[in-house]
Design a protein that fits this description.
This protein is of the alpha/beta class. The chain contains 17 helices and 23 strands.
Length: 493
């Protein structure tokens, strides 16, 4: 064999896999079809967050009067904004994803498109064409934007996350098909920068995998900023051409509420999910089986072929960068050390990086109810988070689901400022068996947003109180105060 480990794909999952291989002393090669860093660096996480930050600055200028500062309407140089986004991406790439970084680690980095010839061998087209074999292979080829079969879509032209950040002229109107995380984030970013945004989805609500109550609150917030949502809608066809008065945009024909509507737009963004990049790999030659979500794997990220593993978007239902890295650690550990590490599917967090952020961890309230589990929901509003009040960012709510007696955490949903940072506290606690009681007893610095998580944990103590306990304490110590209304479901302490 040419290598001990061959990694196909140089995105988050591939970079992690190859790095672990080199760290374990395995002779490692990494193949990438385009450029290292993958979707997260170039067309996903990093450019979208850089654009959201620019939009945040513009929004802060427009709403400065909330803090006693004169509001101004910013002059948005959209080309300069997008160039700054690109410069940020390049900086991240050079700091973390440059091929020389990995070559210095002893990894052979090869560029080209790989296809299997047999279970141990791939053929590479492109810059480093040739055939390469390996004892162990990790497939980390990622995913691409799904494009729904809408009549006229391809003729009219459209954007996905892979082309959105190539824009240099700001659209005055933007229609986004898909009210998931990408759709909601980009809707807010473009609306704040001055584009008139409409989001269309066939679902009845936005962010269907998140808590309905919190997603509803976020929708109201986005609508207050000017984003228009058209839900329960079926996109029938897209029409491009002269819309009159020199307008050469697009017409989006939708059916909603028993009627047909037409939305005119300059650009159309498709944000309708992801499709695994399996088509060009010739997996049949390796005998690797695929399922509805991509390559089929077990809890150790092993495919049906013993020495071949698959990680990241090409195999996982949860297509997040952090899950790509987690699966890469799992696969590399099993492949190279034969240690029985398994995917942790019980503690998966995710965040939609709108303002406010919406974060989730573990089981949802709906899932717990369906499972018939005994649990209590502990709620703490952002209006009672002192740091949020000081900064005027009180839109939000923390919801934690836990066992009522032990305080064992089963899941959490958070809407609010720094929700992504706060959910990490619960992820650490949940993974390591830290209960709400232990969180409540842990000193947190004041005033921080993280203190909101501790205050949410405090509600477990309140939930365990009973009237007979308070009356017993009064009797023993001779206290004469009123007994609090412990049956009030809205009681927050």
């Amino acid at each position: 064999m040419d290598y001990d480990l061959l990694v196909i794909g140089g995105g988050a999952a591939g970079l992690t896999s190859a790095g672990i291989g080199a760290n374990f002393g395995a002779k490692t090669a990494m193949i990438e079809a385009h450029r290292l860093g993958g979707d997260c660096t170039w067309t996903g996480c990093m450019p979208s967050k850089a654009l959201l930050q620019a939009a945040h600055v513009a929004h802060a200028m427009k709403t400065a009067s909330r803090y006693g500062i004169t509001s101004v309407t910013p002059e948005v140089d959209f080309r300069a904004v997008m160039e700054q986004v690109h410069e940020t991406v390049l900086e991240i790439y050079h700091d973390a994803d440059d091929p020389q970084i990995f070559r210095d680690m002893g990894i052979d980095v090869k560029f080209g498109r790989a296809r299997f010839i047999d279970p141990h061998t791939v053929e590479l087209d492109g810059e480093d064409a040739g055939r390469f074999s390996a004892r162990k292979i990790i497939i980390a080829a990622g995913s691409k934007a799904s494009v729904p079969p809408i009549e006229g879509l391809r003729d009219a032209g459209f954007l996905t996350n892979e082309t959105l950040f190539e824009l240099r002229e700001q659209p005055s109107r933007l229609v986004i098909i898909g009210a998931g995380p990408i759709g909601c984030e980009m809707a807010q970013a473009f609306q704040r920068l001055g584009t008139d945004v409409t989001v269309v989805d066939r679902a009845s609500r936005i962010l269907g995998k998140d808590d309905p109550e919190l997603a509803g609150m976020l929708r109201e917030h986005l609508e207050a900023e000017g984003v228009r949502f058209v839900l329960d809608a079926d996109v029938q066809r897209i029409e491009a051409g002269d819309l009159g008065k020199g307008d050469t945009g697009k017409r989006v024909h939708i059916a909603a509420g028993g009627e047909t509507h037409v939305i005119e737009s300059d650009e159309l963004l498709i944000a309708a999910g992801r499709t695994p990049n399996t088509a060009s790999l010739n997996l049949e030659a390796a005998g690797v089986v695929c399922g509805p979500h991509g390559i089929t794997i077990d809890q150790r990220c092993r495919t049906n072929v013993e020495h071949i593993f698959a990680v990241g978007d090409i195999a996982l239902t949860h297509k997040f960068t952090h899950m790509a890295e987690h699966s890469a650690k799992t696969a590399a550990t099993n492949a190279l050390l034969k240690l029985p590490m398994k995917l942790d599917l019980a503690h998966i967090p995710w965040v939609t990086f709108t303002t406010p952020e919406l974060a989730h961890l573990g089981q949802s309230e709906e899932e717990l109810l369906k499972a018939g589990l005994s649990f209590q929901t502990y709620r703490f509003p952002y209006t009672k988070v002192d740091r949020a009040a000081a900064e005027g960012k009180t839109t939000g709510l923390i919801k934690v689901y836990a066992k009522p007696l032990s305080g064992k955490i089963l899941g959490a949903d958070i809407l609010g400022e720094q929700a992504g940072e706060q959910i990490s506290q619960f992820a650490l606690a949940m993974k390591n068996g830290v209960t709400l009681r232990q969180m409540a007893d842990t000193i947190h610095p004041y005033p921080t947003y993280a203190l909101g998580s501790r205050r949410a944990a405090d509600q477990w103590y309140i939930g365990t109180q009973k009237e007979w306990m308070v009356r017993g304490i009064q009797k023993v110590f001779g206290y004469r105060g009123d007994v609090p209304d412990l049956d009030d479901p809205n009681r927050v302490v």
